[in-house]
Amino acid sequence: MRIPEKWLRHYCNPPLDAAGLDHVLTMGGLEVEAREPVAAPFSGVVVARILTAEKHPDADRLQVCHVEVGQGEPVQIVCGAPNARAGLVTACALPGAVLPGDFRIKKTKMRGVESGGMLCSGRELGMGDDHAGILELPADLTPGEDLRQALDLDEEVLELKLTPNLAHCMSVLGVARDLAALANAPVQLPTFAAAPVSIDDRLPVDIQEPSLCGRFAGRIIRGVNAAAPTPDWMKQRLERAGQRPLSALVDISNYVLLELGRPTHIFDLNALKGGIQVRWGRQGERLELLNGQTVEVGPDARALPVGVVCDDTGPVSLAGIMGGQGTAVDPERTTDVYLEAAFWWPAAIMGRPRRFNFTTDAAQRFERGVDAETVVDHLEYLSQLVLQICGGQAGPVTDQITGLPERRPVQMRLSRLRRISGLSLEAADCVDAFTRLGFVFEQKAVPAADGQDADAVFLVTPPSRRFDIAIEEDLIEEVIRLYGYDRVPTRPPLARIQMRPAPESQLSALRLKRRWADRGYQEVINYSFVAEEDDRRFRTEGEAIHVQNPIASHMNVMRTSLWSGLLTNLRLNLNRKAERVRLFETGRVFLPAPGQPAGPLALAGIAQPIHLGLLAFGPVLEPQWGASPRAVDFFDLKGDIQAVHPEAKLQFVADTHPGLHPGQSARIQLPDGTFVGWIGALHPQLVDALDLPGPVFLAELDGAPLMTRTLASARLDSRFPPAIRDLAVVLDEAVPAADVEDEIWAAVGQDPSAACVRHVILFDQYRGKGLENKEKSLAFRLWMQHTDRTMNDEEVEAVVAMVLGRLTARFGARLRA
């Protein structure tokens, strides 16, 4: 926000120099980002009056001007500006002048005619971007006067960086109020005299939506001269505040906005048909705005309505945002106007400008809150400016109120202020702060909770302009702000830390990540927002949780799987010529959970479990001489999971998933049958859709079971040699090898004579000659060992026979010949 310093000092002029003023504002939360003069540095430029302007004898577009520059004799200057004419007061750079960019002026000849200087445009002097012609200055300036002094070009403009809670400072008067409080200086508040009423014309107004508009005031002014020039003092203030002057009526409305922070609108009365209605936009209604954009004003896809001001034909303005082209004032045809000032509820404006891909100064203020008590006062001020500059006859003010913001008292405890700020402030400091801010407050003493001295409590009623004062912490901020952030001592934070137990049976997330990093996988971190289309590919059931206000159109739902992000990472790596990719991610997924209550770490109705996602693509090993190249497959990824998480004893059961290859996918479960995830190859259709060069293998597991591990227990090592036997059994091809291995361990656990079995390893699988069509042979190696003696052959054979008997009874297995 740009504020000319003299405009600010007109309302509040503390005894501070430029550096002191910047420091006070910045320490009060109104950060001064920059301070710069109105115009770039230049010298040797004076006010000049063109006495004559004649056509150049040898050039069609040049004129030979005789210019009065305060030197007694006129100076001859050749100029090509189309607006150069006799009687014009402009800027002249004399020989020896230095313009911005170190451009030096000297006498020269142009097409054979001597030129003793240069008549300057605004851009050549660093006073704007206008280069269509030379400057046109007020006629009352004295030729020969230094231009910087004549136009006060050394005035400095402050660039303020305002935080969103400082909506009351989005005006010159608002900043002046805060400056007065911060510097403890007087503030000169404007007076709002009622404009003289000479006609009785009124425009009927019907507020149909009280939730949209709380107050609507307006008046008719007839016989205005819309083509009247904007006063130079107003144009100067607008330009220096960053607002380009357009026409008198528009400039007056913009001036009131910048000075008072009050957005207003001026309608061409003759373009309005009938009375005014204030309501929500309806489906199918359209409006052409002042910026030339035509918009739909009906509810959007989220059924969010937008407010409109209508006449009998339909919408003529976006409420609190921007006016319509059809009722805009025009300097050539407007004679009667309707002035409008209103209070729009902030909730009715929030988010609406973004729907149309733009924002406005009015919307920025209304969505943060504009004073509802001063609507009529500011309308009177606007009316006075219109009558003074454009003339006309004013009708009475019509003011309708459907509801105003309730300003409830806010309580602040002195003890709370001290605890939050760490400062030993007294009640007198709070009284001083609230008084300087102009707050209405009451002070009382209440018994302290700890039995110590009574605590001072303040009940503060926020002014109607301060929408940011709602809770105790807001008042604490105001007291500290006026006390001075620079006076707050720097102290290290002190807090008591209670060490939480870290059970050995729980694997930390960092340890889990290190295991996969040690396995050769690289960690990635992705957004939790994904495109609904990408997430739907891997969703087995239900719907995703939609983001109400997505930061981008392709990030509109909360992810239910980590795979969409991993595949995006894969494509980015492949685009950069990566050949072998191993990725993992640990992060939350978001699933609808109707009936789930809210808790310290839980949201009502939304489950947020932590998942582990894995992706493998490309060759199994990096290129090397010791092994033949081979592409990664299902069993490589499965083996990685079993190697990294052996304590989980995960089981893999063939099953189908919509995003995985029908013949290469499996459900992952715990020994008790609890489902924990999926593994498999990406579906071939998705491989083609994502334009991937080869098969991709994915896995996703619930993180909680993976972080639980069995504590190690001590066991004696045997000094005696082991007995090793290989057991090859023939059984039906449909029997999973994992079920056979589980049955062997079950037999070992249930028969005391088999307690000597230490290891069971599947080392061979055979199909072919010697077996029936639908049979297979599985070979297991049993490792048996006692800790107190050497096993004899009878004991070993008894264990093998017992295991074979269990497999025969369960699966119909027979010993392979």
UniProtKB/TrEMBL annotation:
Residues 405-490 form the B5 domain. Its cofactor is Mg(2+). It is an enzyme of class 6 (ligase). Residues 39-148 form the TRNA-binding domain. Pfam families: B3_4, B5, FDX-ACB, tRNA_bind, tRNA_synthFbeta. Keywords: Aminoacyl-tRNA synthetase, ATP-binding, Cytoplasm, Ligase, Magnesium, Metal-binding, Nucleotide-binding, Protein biosynthesis, RNA-binding, tRNA-binding. Residues 718-816 form the FDX-ACB domain. It is found in: Cytoplasm. SUPFAM superfamilies: Anticodon-binding domain of PheRS (SSF54991), Class II aaRS and biotin synthetases (SSF55681), Nucleic acid-binding proteins (SSF50249), PheT/TilS domain (SSF56037), Putative DNA-binding domain (SSF46955). Binds 2 magnesium ions per tetramer. CDD domains: PheRS_beta_core (cd00769), tRNA_bind_bactPheRS (cd02796). It catalyses: tRNA(Phe) + L-phenylalanine + ATP = L-phenylalanyl-tRNA(Phe) + AMP + diphosphate + H(+). The keyword ATP-binding applies. Mg(2+) binds at D468, D474, E477, E478. One of its GO terms (molecular function) is ATP binding. One of its GO terms (biological process) is phenylalanyl-tRNA aminoacylation. Its EC number is 6.1.1.20. GO terms for cellular component: phenylalanine-tRNA ligase complex. Belongs to the phenylalanyl-tRNA synthetase beta subunit family. Type 1 subfamily. NCBIfam families: pheT_bact, YtpR. Tetramer of two alpha and two beta subunits. This is Phenylalanine--tRNA ligase beta subunit. It comes from Lautropia dentalis. The lineage of its organism: Bacteria, Pseudomonadati, Pseudomonadota, Betaproteobacteria, Burkholderiales. The gene is pheT.
